[in-house]
Amino acid sequence: MGFAEFPGDAGWRHVDARDGFEAAWFRGESGGGRRIDGTAVAVEDGLSWAVRYRILLGPTGRTLRAEVESRSVGGRLTVVLEADGEGSWLVDGAAAPELDGCLDVDLEASALTNAFPVRRLGLAVGERASAPAAYVRAADATVGRLEQTYLRVEDEAAGPAYDYEAPAFDFACRLRYDASGLALDYPGIAVRVR
């Protein structure tokens, strides 16, 4: 399935797991890539945090760079992830072999980043794929590998739907997307409002 271009901007209200909001802005880059700038601010488990990010996707939708700044009561932390688009990563300039094979970044703070594997994979109804990601935590900007899978299920009126699983968190849900591949409903996490 081909997706429409990203809109100029998008916003999500974070619900259930945390209270907050995320906004993102999209811009085309030379060579067919995309730059995404965004901010998420929330209160979760009694802790306030803010995450600002800038993500560069290559023309095939693979993450090439992510700059993530996290602020909480613990202070301000920044991490920079760089990828070659083939599955090798640097975190703050150091090789990160534990991320080998990951093609996407996934930010704990973001409802947006689940769009990356969905758009990149282009699964047909009934197809399932593993999409491990370089996962950045919201409160402390630590980076690790997140194993996750997507199963494309029958489309719904608003757009495609996927059954999503992240075994490390014992989490599974049905994600609903719009025609551009942005999440409309991320159960327990966020709802698209713009």
UniProtKB/TrEMBL annotation:
Database matches in InterPro entries: Glycolipid-bd_prot_put
Entries under Pfam families matching the protein: Glycolipid_bind
Protein name (database record): Glycolipid-binding domain-containing protein
Organism per entry: Streptodolium elevatio
